[in-house]
Write a structure and sequence with these properties.
Elements: H1 5-26, E1 36-39, E2 42-44, H2 46-62, E3 67-70, E4 83-86, H3 92-96
Parallel strand pairs: 3-4
Antiparallel strand pairs: 1-2
Helix pairs in contact: 1-2
Length: 100
């Protein structure tokens, strides 16, 4: 399926806006008992996963047929065709400690 560049940009902006709103609402709400470590000092939370899910849902609706590759929900996906690569919360450790 072919997509117009303006349509893709609008979809990306909508997805970004939705995830940003969610992330701002969650700032400071994650207590250490809700953090998971993927590796040494490499944290992941439900906030990471939900922000990525919001983006994927928005992009899939706006640009059907595209694939979403995300750090938390689909890191091993093999891309082909239209591919969106998303990492909505780059800097989870800073986010968790409320460092800008």
């Amino acid at each position: 399926m072919k997509h117009d560049a303006a349509q893709l940009l609008a979809a990306a902006q909508l997805a970004t806006d939705r995830a940003a709103l969610f992330l701002r609402e969650q700032e400071g709400r994650q207590t250490p008992d809700r953090w998971s470590e993927k590796g040494r000092a490499d944290f992941v939370t439900d906030v990471d996963r939900e922000a990525e899910r919001l983006i994927a849902e928005t992009l899939a609706e706006a640009a059907p047929g595209g694939r979403i590759v995300g750090e938390e929900l689909s890191p091993g996906a093999l891309p082909s065709g239209l591919v969106w690569v998303v990492d909505p919360l780059d800097g989870t450790t800073n986010f968790l400690h409320r460092f800008p």
